[in-house]
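Quick question: what would this complex look like in 3D?
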Amino acid sequence: EAGVVQSPRYKIIEKKQPVAFWCNPISGHNTLYWYLQNLGQGPELLIRYENEEAVDDSQLPKDRFSAERLKGVDSTLKIQPAELGDSAVYLCASSFRDYNEQFFGPGTRLTVL
Amino acid sequence: AQSVTQLGSHVSVSEGALVLLRCNYSSSVPPYLFWYVQYPNQGLQLLLKYTTGATLVKGINGFEAEFKKSETSFHLTKPSAHMSDAAEYFCAVTRGNNQGGKLIFGQGTELSVKP
């Protein structure tokens, strides 16, 4: 069974440019999470989806970040415009019913110059 | 509110020595507790978890952790370190009874293993 897939793995952009990350969860997993991991820190939840509904987006900076999961399967996280402080690893995770079994993807490492 | 504190951002042990990574949590409701491992340039992998029942939890790769409610601790141990154990370890908490979904992570402990 394939794990959580994320692309790209690495992204380097200039500040003020837009960027998008893609995540494909494990087949059948209805819950999808996006986490932000700053260097030397633990991950922090940005947004959680139950199927196509965002049920917890309280930590998502909505002025520049947006996310979607249109068909309740794969998801896209976007930043526009990117700032220097957005340099981090963006992790996607998924789970099926049991919130406590979250499976993580390899992450996308973003560098904003 | 919930929080996690991992004591020691970096722990170094010799190969074959005991590994002890400390985690203390704060939670106003019965917690579920987790340990994850992260190898360089990879995502997080679940080592073990405590939800209910037995307080001594065994995980993969020979790791185990004990939930001590009175001490609000969930320390991770392994009797004998192996070179392949070198990685970043994260303790995490969420609300019990499957109410949450939001994992609260500690800041991580980097484990180094010396030959």
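Answer marked as accepted. The two ends of chain B are 41 Å apart (CA to CA).
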